[in-house]
């Protein structure tokens, strides 16, 4: 499958059914269309596998249990139920881990934060939070608190995942806090936790500290955690999921779940999008979600250049593997945006003029090779290109 394919990818009845199921509730027309598509499913085992891989199996199971299609063998539905129960246990473990992070790390250190996506989104917008699959926990914290937070996490049993060689040495913690935007650790319960110093890739789209100040409280278990307001979260997931070409179907369910919630106000969302320069991104995502939710969806009907391009690549990503998604990501116009039309002229000029500075950003491998105390770590910026030049010379001499 080509990442630059100009044609809309073919859609099987199975994928069409999954797209219809990518919402919390079906209306009458969607129900009729779903039952008709159930009769066209040739391989329920492959259907179940795709639903699992696209993180939507619990929602799919609930729809099928309500529809009771005659074409679905009872043993296939029973197998889905077994896997859904296992996913529920996983998701409840992730949700519980979020509360533990608040109690063990963030509250004792009095670190301001906001958690976004994943379990906090499920707790806020899903009637059954365990229905929403969460692979990890994302938490935004001020960069100046990162070293202290990581030290505490390592002390109480969290283990490093990225960078994997992270240690509790003060100079090591100072390095990652200064030069890494995301540090990933594993909780004692085995849940991956990503601590973010900023919420976007460049730091030019969002003022991350202001997002922390705008946080709201929601109850997760018996703990009140800090979350993004609905308008900020909706705009952010449109940006994030478009950056990944909507390759996971539970992201479509998120859009539906948030729009059904009483706190959703379309005017506030559009005003928030305009404030961040993301109006076009949000508008196109809303149009795409409406198109994909239509029981009469025809991939060959045109909906506008931008919507059609997002649809084409997203539908391809939904059917591709991780390698295909990585190739799509390699073709993005910038780290923050999948498409050029998403960004402003100001952003594009800034990326053109300053994007090259990323080549001076030190890597953890450089720190491990030449560990320096925190007061001398500014030297890593000129050292990185010098090291790359030196390695190139050595390879040239070897050849």
UniProtKB/TrEMBL annotation:
InterPro entries xrefs: NTP_transf_5
Keywords of the record: Transferase
Domain of life according to the entry: Bacteria
A molecular function GO annotation: transferase activity
UniProt-listed Pfam families: NTP_transf_5
Protein name: Putative nucleotidyltransferase-like protein
């Amino acid at each position: 499958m080509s990442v630059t394919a100009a044609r809309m990818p073919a859609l099987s009845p199975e994928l069409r059914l999954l797209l219809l199921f990518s919402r919390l509730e079906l209306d009458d027309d969607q129900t009729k269309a779903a039952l008709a598509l159930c009769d066209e499913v040739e391989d329920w085992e492959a259907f179940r596998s795709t639903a699992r891989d696209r993180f939507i199996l619990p929602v799919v199971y609930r729809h099928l249990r309500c529809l009771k299609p005659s074409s679905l063998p009872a043993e296939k539905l029973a197998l889905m139920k077994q896997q859904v129960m296992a996913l529920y246990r996983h998701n409840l473990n992730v949700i519980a881990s979020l509360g533990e992070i608040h109690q063990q790390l963030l509250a004792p250190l009095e670190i301001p934060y906001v958690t976004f996506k994943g379990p906090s989104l499920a707790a806020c917008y899903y009637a059954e939070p365990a229905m929403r699959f969460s692979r990890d926990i994302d938490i935004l914290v001020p960069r100046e608190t990162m070293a202290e937070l990581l030290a505490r996490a390592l002390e109480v049993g969290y283990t490093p995942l990225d960078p994997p060689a992270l240690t509790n040495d003060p100079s090591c913690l100072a390095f990652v806090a200064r030069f890494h935007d995301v540090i990933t650790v594993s909780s004692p319960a085995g849940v991956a936790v990503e601590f973010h110093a900023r919420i976007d890739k460049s730091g030019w789209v969002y003022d991350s500290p202001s997002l922390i100040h705008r946080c709201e409280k929601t109850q997760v278990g018996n703990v009140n955690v800090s979350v993004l307001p609905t308008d900020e979260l909706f705009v952010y997931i449109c940006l994030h999921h478009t950056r990944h070409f909507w390759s996971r179907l539970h992201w479509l369910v998120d859009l539906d779940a948030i729009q059904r919630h009483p706190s959703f106000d379309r005017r506030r969302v559009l005003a928030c999008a305009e404030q961040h320069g993301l109006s076009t991104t949000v508008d196109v995502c809303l149009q795409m979600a409406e198109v994909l939710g239509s029981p009469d969806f025809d991939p060959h009907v045109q909906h506008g250049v931008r919507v059609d391009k997002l649809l084409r690549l997203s539908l391809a990503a939904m059917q591709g593997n991780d390698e295909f998604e990585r190739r799509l990501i390699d073709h993005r116009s910038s780290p923050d945006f999948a498409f050029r039309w998403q960004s402003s002229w100001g952003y594009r000029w800034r990326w053109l003029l300053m994007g090259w500075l990323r080549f001076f950003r030190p890597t953890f491998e450089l720190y491990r090779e030449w560990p320096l105390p925190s007061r001398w770590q500014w030297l890593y910026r000129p050292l990185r290109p010098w090291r790359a030049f030196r390695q190139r010379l050595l390879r040239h001499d070897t050849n």
